[in-house]
Prior knowledge:
alpha/beta; 11 helices
Amino acid sequence: MSIRVGIYGYGNLGRGVECAIRQNSDMELACVFTRRDPATLEIKTEGVPVYHIDKAVEMKDKIDVLILCGGSARDLPTQTPEMAKLFNVVDSFDTHAKIPCHMANVDAAAKEGGKVALISVGWDPGMFSINRMYMGAVLPCGKDYTFWGKGVSQGHSDAIRRIEGVKNGKQYTIPVDAALEAVRSGSEPELTTREKHTRLCYVVAEEGADKARIEREIKEMPNYFADYDTTVEFISEEELLRDHSGIPHGGFVIRTGKTGEDLQNTHVIEYSLKLDSNPEFTASVIVAYARAAYKMHLEGQSGCKTVFDVAPAYLSATPREELIKNLL
Amino acid sequence: MSIRVGIYGYGNLGRGVECAIRQNSDMELACVFTRRDPATLEIKTEGVPVYHIDKAVEMKDKIDVLILCGGSARDLPTQTPEMAKLFNVVDSFDTHAKIPCHMANVDAAAKEGGKVALISVGWDPGMFSINRMYMGAVLPCGKDYTFWGKGVSQGHSDAIRRIEGVKNGKQYTIPVDAALEAVRSGSEPELTTREKHTRLCYVVAEEGADKARIEREIKEMPNYFADYDTTVEFISEEELLRDHSGIPHGGFVIRTGKTGEDLQNTHVIEYSLKLDSNPEFTASVIVAYARAAYKMHLEGQSGCKTVFDVAPAYLSATPREELIKNLL
């Protein structure tokens, strides 16, 4: 019998989850929940119902895992605890500083419901976090670094678009090659924010707008751009839509460390992602962890878990004996 | 209280484990077991006793985890099951084809003793296996590739040294850059053995030996070299000792996969290691898993486990709350 998965929220991430479920033959999409009028929502999977989120409680026994596809700022802090009382859930809560608080809320709810809740699943937090953890455990005398990009930052793109005279815009975060090389050398450099990443902005200006002012406002924007070497390029709306409509992302986690009697030997561990679609990859990670949540619940576990708490074998649809035979 | 670790077998790996334990403040070396006369063994840690392996049973209650540092061909198939009856154990059994059989033997023994036995720990099998597993679970529609090197292959170096007229020799396995690039492109190429790796041999010939014959014998050696583009370079013994006395190794696990409604998006996940010392890095991985074996045993688990069965958090000395706060 398949694992019945529900999708709660049907934006970029929800659509990615829908696609990912199709790639996993042990899973099926049970239904999609939306805040909109369900009649207005067209989903890609034939024969699967769309319900208003108010109906979720009625689906309690028809869904094995509910995947929460809302945003970390406004949706997940309330949705995940609410839903964890009713379902095994997975979310991609990514406001790093607020994870411990979110965790406490979700843990209480999941324990109340006897369900497993996996939070902060994706690639960062997610696969990058796991790698930081494995690397640090294996090489205690060392230092790790995370670089992001080349990829589109939604938050920074939004910030550009809020500037007066900007019609549209897209921002790429780009890791600095020299910094990557310095890290890989094992020298454990201290790197400033400016040394690690640059920011590249493609901006479509309103007709007659003062481009010099727009460029200055971007480059001087505190938190977002002031601490970085930022490049601003003005392009036409056609160019923006033609060349910059994707949502690529990726990055690097690198740890270097020393071993040996006199710490004479250096080791470099590197994990990297190069993603054509940030939401679709995030969705793929989440769907693998949905399987894990289901298996852990079957074993009688409950409460809030993170990627640190999940043994790798839970993620796979392949029986353990085959994993050991073919992948170990 | 520290985790008391025993070392069983004091070769390159055992010495690496001894160094690695010092980097982990929650662990201490309890003793070293050897097949040799203990009086002849000098270890690096002051005040730690060396015993003959026959004494192991007497240390049953004084060791929390025993790390087996013998070889996969002759030592571990008997040593790991024997010791798993008495101790939580970790080994680095790496004869891939025989892992299921080894696993069955060790599982029966560990369950009999109520102990946790972690087998096939290191980097391949080990960290590479975990990465193959995570990558495959996250991107089911894709293909993964493992490349080894640049690094010293002990087995191939030994094969060279068995040839008549060879005084000494060292073999490096080198991944082919073009193959790596083809894999990273996402084209999922079919690669032959010859296309993936080359082999580079540094050979010290006996005086007056027929170098042309030695070179031919190496290049034509079945299994070891015949399927590869092999380069043979004759050097002096001084050069060999000066430039090739290290045991570096490493490699790459790369998976590319597709997502999206029409599989239009490609993703590349890459994990790589660049190691100055193969045995010391292997030892560092093993020591982290020794911590895991100890924690799992404390929780009441028993039997034979692999890296697939161990949740990442078990490897770390850092409390879960801090891991979540700092690494997630």
